[in-house]
């Protein structure tokens, strides 16, 4: 008689947030398999296929590519075409216009790697852009190739991939300037070793910057000349913005394994309407002028207001997204300055929200949290 042996199966921990190239691996594979157009050196896809990956579409064999970016096709064409030249790409725009998102998806589609990333802050050192050293090895071996720690940019140069620099304008000007030689000469000298790393074909760089930061550390003109700038706009219409929020909320909800909430569409539309009206300073019908609050009220914030609302309704409510689930989140986004923004918000509540018959639940929920 043999005992049956049960092998314990441990499921691997699930990732909280897979990289774009992991999450959309099947789409990228399908695109690569069917893409017959010419590909720039070391690109995984042709520029046409990269734009299709970003904007979505249906391939000849019926594979559906989901849209990642919602906005003018031409902007994405300019961005992708730039990356096939010797100029780098600067994505500029107000916060929450998908600069980081587009940068991640572009590098995933072109290089299959979105992780060669430098996060720009006022404390970003030159080593983050050039290279650093493993100090234990540096002390025992002196400066050797083995003791050198390449930056993401150096790795991208060696392998002909896309490097990303987030929030370029927050980096101190002298550190930013380390990029000039890299982008103009396509080389990174390592004087300690008496060598240089020359960029392999396919190398390029995507930087993002918030135009609200402009002036903090203005890009030097020498550096600016190395970039083509693409300005990402706020969503043009309410329809677009509702579509973006609804899609992202659905993806985030699935990733967080929140129970699905039916009929969230109405509440999403209301959040977007409030954001757009306050942002633009007029009501949708154009009749009432409004003051705008100090915050950006970006699409990204609308996404997080709705996602938080879904978590509230799933765990503490009746499982349906209600006005009371989003009211506190909206308040938090609108009132950044406790005095001035509160005045703006109260005026909006009384002059606009209160007057809308079908918004009475929302008015009550907002009044309750506004105090
Ligand atoms: N036009 C758009 N198309 C698709 N998603 C968008 C768009 N605008 C904003 N988003 C969403 O907003 C979120 C935040 O964008 P992010 O890239 O972090 O903004 P930024 O870097 O410009 O501040 C992302 O989850 C993205 O999906
Ligand atoms: Mg960003």
From TrEMBL:
Pfam families hit by this protein: AAA_5
InterPro entries: ATPase_dyneun-rel_AAA (IPR011704), CbbQ/NirQ/NorQ/GpvN (IPR050764), P-loop_NTPase (IPR027417)
Name of the protein this chain belongs to: ATPase dynein-related AAA domain-containing protein
UniProt GO molecular function: ATP binding; ATP hydrolysis activity
Every ATPase dynein-related AAA domain range: 89-227
Gene3D superfamilies with a match to the protein in the record: P-loop containing nucleotide triphosphate hydrolases (3.40.50.300)
Taxonomic path: Bacteria, Bacillati, Actinomycetota, Actinomycetes, Mycobacteriales
């Amino acid at each position: 008689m043999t005992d049956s042996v049960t092998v314990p199966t441990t499921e691997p921990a699930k990732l909280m947030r897979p990289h774009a190239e992991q999450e959309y691996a099947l789409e990228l594979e399908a695109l690569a398999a069917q893409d017959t157009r010419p590909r720039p050196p070391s690109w995984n896809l042709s520029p046409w296929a990269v734009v299709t990956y970003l904007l979505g579409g249906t391939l000849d064999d019926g594979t559906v590519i989901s849209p990642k970016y919602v906005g003018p096709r031409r902007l994405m064409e300019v961005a992708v075409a730039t990356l096939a030249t010797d100029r780098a790409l600067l994505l500029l725009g107000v916060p929450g216009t998908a600069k980081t998102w587009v940068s991640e998806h572009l590098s995933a589609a072109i290089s299959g790697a979105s992780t060669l990333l430098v996060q720009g802050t006022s404390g970003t050192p030159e080593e983050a852009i050039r290279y650093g050293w493993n100090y234990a090895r540096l002390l025992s071996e002196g400066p050797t190739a083995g003791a050198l720690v390449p930056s993401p940019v150096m790795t991208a140069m060696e392998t002909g991939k896309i490097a990303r620099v987030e929030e370029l304008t927050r980096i101190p000007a002298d550190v930013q300037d380390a990029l000039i030689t890299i982008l103009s000469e396509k080389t990174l000298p390592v004087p300690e070793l008496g060598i240089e790393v020359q960029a392999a074909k396919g190398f390029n760089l995507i930087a993002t910057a918030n135009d609200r930061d402009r002036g903090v550390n203005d890009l030097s003109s020498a550096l600016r000349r190395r970039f083509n700038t693409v300005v990402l706009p706020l969503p043009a219409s309410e329809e677009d913005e509702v579509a973006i929020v609804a899609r992202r909320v659905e993806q985030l909800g699935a990733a967080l394994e929140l129970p699905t909430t039916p009929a969230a569409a109405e509440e999403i539309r209301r959040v977007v309407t409030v954001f757009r009206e306050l942002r633009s300073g007029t009501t949708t019908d154009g009749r009432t002028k409004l003051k705008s609050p100090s915050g950006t009220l970006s699409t990204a914030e609308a996404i997080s207001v709705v996602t938080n609302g879904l978590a509230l309704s799933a765990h503490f409510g009746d499982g349906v997204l209600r006005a009371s689930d989003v009211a506190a989140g909206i308040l938090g986004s609108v009132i950044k300055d406790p005095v001035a923004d509160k005045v703006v918000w109260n005026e909006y509540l009384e002059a606009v929200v209160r007057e809308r018959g079908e918004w009475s639940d929302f008015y009550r929920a907002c009044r309750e949290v506004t105090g």
